[in-house]
């Protein structure tokens, strides 16, 4: 259907188009593109609330994106469609816009998809490609057809032009500072998970930076631009492994699609997506950065406390691996979990009949597998016939009686780019329907191409769709090439790290540091952070004053409290005194869990080092929240700490729980009012080194 003008609206979101211009936006952010010759060229990115424009006008502006193997010929036709969507019920309802461009002398179809969220100051963009067969080319395409005029002067292609980028903007303002945030995974060998790089625009400058996030802020105007690369960390990038962000003078480029020319060479039955991107606008302040990122995360995944908040146990942290998995052992773990107040018990690798490379019995069974599970036979993912002779039914039934959710470990088959993804999805769905399992740890993923990534996403989407959005996928990010933090991980959360006292690589302040550093950029509710049985392997730490045993089990639990805590241990192996103390603490803080994780968790105080004053704040709106304060191994009896979002407000604090020393639990304290000093800092006092306290607070009239 040919139209002179296309318009579609959903709440405050809209798309407007004619034969030369496409505009997408909402009440807060608007983008406009020149669509002549089919190569989208950015014309405007405007902060509507501030009336602030980010782009300069360029007649010879570079295309918005360029993928390896894209044709140089102009477009033949474009097809535009729009509809409301909610990403299988996981996201807020939003407007999805698609522009399909067919090229002359090419069977390639290039699709650009935008997602715009009502009342949210950001928009997502994704480019995907499909090479059609001759039969497909003859078929009509869906959407409103737009005849695409050529530009008056295309010029010859520049052989030095970048051939692999997913977003590009010609910036108007020279006087800007920028900061790239590189998040790191593969945590089995990484323990500093955030790195920052800063700079300022320079007319002849050339700068390249790794990262998933880029903040760009004007020096002369209170205005900021957030750019998100929705892909893996640098450790997981596919395709040409270029840095994620680049500046060429005042041109900003998001590099690396994950695709290569080979992807575009053969006909395909479906679109293959490049890494995505998103932009957001804010007021140029640090609080504004937090606001726009919070809006982004809340837009792409609706918070569902019954699915998203949990205190889980997993026995793997005591390093018996699958050696103790059996029906009696798991039933004992369930009883211990119920006494402790654990909400979910997850059975890791070993519940299934097949043997993996991580099994305690791997050597005796031919080394085990880490892919090729379906080649091993149809019984691989059935309950182990000797360890669980009655299957999982007794375990699931007892869990239900105790009010505990059963979780399971699963490893999709990486062979041949996850070609068995449908079988794997059916296995997860069967476990969900048969045993009521809603939380699956997804491990062993090894991505080798964008086709493999597409199949992993197909698996996840099938499970979410056919479970009625009733399954939470906990993505292990400890090793291999995986999705990272921003690579389409919206269908659950992140199992962040393996830490063991057996290898002396667990310290409570290291766990706290990783949560503290990530919480600015990744919602704490999306992270699963560990606490261990600190009495194990004390000899491996010698006289280290920050050893887990020196901190005690309560301090270790508190370090993970503002995430989804993971009891990375055999609960039935806890000393009784520790089990009793943890049970009391868990029950004291349980009434505040929803408030903490529904809020915005942000770091306060010093970066955790084992020797400072540090903590986390969970802001529940503008007037109340929770604060968790740690006095590490520090001699100062008190410290003034700046909180987020309260300026000079007088606050009323009330202690919920804390410790007087490693083993002495403190319960509710007397409420008190506190005014900040001239720098907006509030005074906190704790009784001894290696202690903590959890407070609620509210603004006093």
TrEMBL record:
- This protein's UniProt keywords: Glycosidase, Hydrolase
Q: Name one GO biological process term.
A: carbohydrate metabolic process
Q: Which residues form the signal peptide?
A: none
Mind listing the GO molecular function terms for this protein?
hydrolase activity, hydrolyzing O-glycosyl compounds
Q: Which InterPro entries match?
A: Aldolase_TIM, GH, Glyco_hydro_27/36_CS
The transmembrane residues are none
Q: Does the keyword Hydrolase apply?
A: yes
Q: Which family does it belong to?
A: Belongs to the glycosyl hydrolase 36 family.
Q: What is this protein called?
A: Alpha-galactosidase
Which source organism? Paenibacillus antri
